[in-house]
Amino acid sequence: MTTRTWRGALTPRRLTTIRGRLLIGILALLAAGLVGNSVAGALTLRTYLHHRAEVTLRESGDRIHRLLQEQPQTVDGSQLATLLEPLLGITVVGTDGTVADQVGAGAPEDVNALTAGRLDQVVTFNDQPAVPDLIALRIPTAGLTITTAHRTVQASAVILTMRTDIDRGTVAGFISGQATVVAITLALTSAVSLLILGIGLRPLGRMADTADDIASGARDERLPVHGEHNETDRLAIAVNNAFDAQARAERQVRDFVADASHELRTPLATISGWLDLYNQDALSDPHTLAAALDRVNGEVGRMRLLVEELSLLARLDTGRPLEAQPVDLQGLAADVVQDAQVIAPDRAINLHPAHPAQTVHPALVHGDGPRLQQVLNNLIGNAVQHTPPGTDVDVTVDATVTHVRILVADRGPGIPPEDLTRVFDRFWRADAGRSRAHGGSGLGLAIVQAIVHAHHGTVHVTSAPGTGTTVTVALPTRAEPDDSRPGEPT
Hints:
The protein is α+β, with helices and mostly antiparallel strands.
């Protein structure tokens, strides 16, 4: 990695990226582990060295005690020093309590006073200004004569000493070495981590480039998925699904605008044609003029109905609250069926409950009465329009404790399976020519679905060619605004 790459990777702006945060996290965890391990090692080493010094003193003290048990009269100082190796020094205390002589490495005379009264105890000196870092063990030796290079001393005690500053230097050297190891390890880890993170995050970079291309107009592009079921693949699939949903929404908007324009273009063309004839004085005959005005009024009414339906769908799409009043669906269905029988006297449009339990559970819901009436009008109207003359239509209202179901069934030709998934699409018709001939806009079932969902209900269609079609609407007996949409009751 070049110096320029290092600087680019470690700038404050870069450190706020995912790569930078991951790098900081890795280095922080590694540094904490290395420092903690070094501190634990240093403490263990210091404890071990101090314990080793104490053990050495005590073992030397035991050898002196064994020597005293043999009742020696005189001991040569050099032999005593050899016997007590690896001690650094032996201080001989005379019978008057003062330092009489020293064998080996000397120790300050203050050690005599500091260890007085602390026989056979290991004493550690760390904060005494007059005594360097050392540990000492004072052993009583009454009756022992020690011959040194200088003289013969009648010893009342000997003080065994070992310096600990060497051990401290060893610990300090260990800490210094560990600090160097930590620094080198962190530097190498940074380089390797940047390389690994660069490789690991490369798919995210490709995703960002692809997303930029899609935003620039390449709507058919999608993020690459490698089929490895890892995090990047899951992210790519989720983003691709979002792009697909957006593409579908945009396509639906375009189709909606095109369909609405097409629906409005036909009546506008008709009105424009009659106006042109009127401006050319081609409608001078009163009967012809009256017929033209009737046609114009009919087309205006068709446009008004389409605009009202589109306005209703827009209000329902925005989630505007509906009226919430008690509505008797059985009575409402009876009124709608009666109106339909007047409009289509050649049809047998029947209303009946599903079973006698209807009298136990009244078909009462809380909702918007006019909108629910529109649902029934659209369903029965569709059944009448899209079935041959003389085809029966059955309307069933079935009430339970939690739901009220409305079933509108006909015995017509049915709907092909490939068309069932589109029956609720706006402006969609299975037979566009026939629907327009009957004045349909292709919004009837779309309005039904929107109104039912606004009441927290469900609607679905079952059909098969040659067996007829059944539309089932299920509404909860109480449709609260925060209720989740209920499932289809059984």
